[in-house]
Amino acid sequence: MAREKVAKWIRKRTMSRKSAGRHRSKESGASEPILPMSGSGNGAGALPAHSKSRVSAFLSMLMRWRPRVNVLAVLCEHVVYHLMWVVESVVLVGRLCFFLMRFGFKQL
What we know:
The chain is an all-alpha fold. It is 70% helix and 0% strand.
């Protein structure tokens, strides 16, 4: 029930924004730029109200965004790391044994 109300509220809000944007662009004949040039129109570097809301929404989304950790991928990465460490250790011990068998302990 609550989800339906929220979804309805979001739809109504986005539809009103879309229709307001279309109405404005039809009146002026062209859509407004997302970021105005400095020194034009709204003062030195000031953004229109709708651009400010877009920028703040984008920044708040970035602040809330956290990468989702794939536990299976992290576990697999750790297993592969330790497996490679064991393989490398076995190879080094094998080379040492080969050296000792080939040349004997006199070379040490």
